[in-house]
Structures are given as C-alpha cells and as structure tokens.
TrEMBL record:
The keyword ATP-binding does not apply. This is N-acetyltransferase domain-containing protein. Keywords: Acyltransferase, Transferase. PANTHER family: AMINOALKYLPHOSPHONATE N-ACETYLTRANSFERASE-RELATED-RELATED. Residues 1-25 are annotated as: Disordered. Residues 20-168 form the N-acetyltransferase domain. The keyword Acyltransferase applies. It comes from Kocuria atrinae. Pfam families: Acetyltransf_1.
C-alpha cells in the first residue's frame, strides 16, 4: 500500500480536441455514479462493495466531504444514455491537510471507454468551469504509485502541493 500525494494546478480556460458531449452532474446520477465508482477501482479502494460505493457517492451529494460544485462536475454518457465518465468537484474538501481550493474528489471512466481522452476532457472542463466561476486553483489527491493518473495530471500542469503554515 502506498501513500498519497496532493497535487494543485491553476485553473484556466482550456479546450479539448474532439470533445465528447458532456453535461452537469445531478442527484439523478447517484446510482450510475455509484456503479461506475465501484467498477473503476479495485477492492483495495474505499469502496469495497457496491453498498460502500453508493454510500460514498450519496455522501458527496449530501456534503459529507465538502460542498459539491455540480456546475464544475461534468459527466459523459454513451450513445444509450449511460454515464461512462465523470469528474466530481467539491468547493473544498473537508480536512486540515489540504489546500483551501476546489477539490477534484473523483475522476473515473468505465473500462470500456478508457484511452479515449475522456478523463483529460473532464478535468479540462472542470478547470474551465472553476476558472469562469472565479476560482484560481484546483487540487486533488492520488496514490503516489498511480503512474497513469500522475502522468495525466502532470500533462495538465498539476504540481505537488506542499502545505505552508498559513495554509493549514
């Protein structure tokens, strides 16, 4: 089991090439997001069962981890209307050891839709929405051994965040 690292980036207006249509997340998406969340991670994650996944996603909408920013939380559906990728952004994640900035709580893509650029598109969309709402930064936390996620976030100009005494 590895540790986690916190990353932070400046928000900006960015665009994706050939973006898939997306929309804002809603509470009606909770069942689909829960299923996608459970399927996206292995059993070592926080969601070791479908019930855990449902509880976590419901907790996001209930503000358990911090206020949800639905307008900065895009989802992508397939041609049949099933959610296949999502980015969930909080106004700020609860916790003393995190930046005072919006927080990318989860980013996940169905295995059948990976390697299509959807995750990058969703992060770019979230960063643009945050920028347009006046937020200057966005943060997230990942497992330090998650090389695929780290590569994505480095491509998007995320950097390791080191807390300063006045930030915590």
């Amino acid at each position: 089991m590895s540790g986690t690292i916190t990353l932070i980036a400046q928000t900006s207006e960015t665009t994706s090439t050939n973006p898939a249509p997306s929309r804002q997340v809603t509470a009606d998406d909770i069942p689909a997001l829960s299923e996608l969340f459970f399927q996206a991670y292995d059993a070592s994650s926080a969601a070791t069962s479908k019930e855990d996944a449902q509880q976590i996603i419901q907790g996001v909408f209930d503000g358990e981890f911090g206020p949800l920013l639905p307008e900065a939380s895009p989802v992508i559906e397939d041609e049949d209307g099933h959610v296949v990728a999502a980015a969930i952004v909080l106004e700020q994640r609860k916790g003393d050891d995190l930046p005072k900035a919006p927080y990318l709580f989860e980013l996940f893509t169905a295995s059948s839709h990976r390697r299509r650029g959807l995750a990058e598109q969703l992060v770019r969309e979230a960063m643009t929405k945050l920028y347009n709402q006046g937020y200057e930064e966005v943060s997230l936390r990942i497992a330090e051994d998650n090389s695929a996620a780290l590569a994505l976030y480095l491509t998007l100009d995320f950097n390791r965040w080191v807390p300063y005494n006045d930030d915590v």
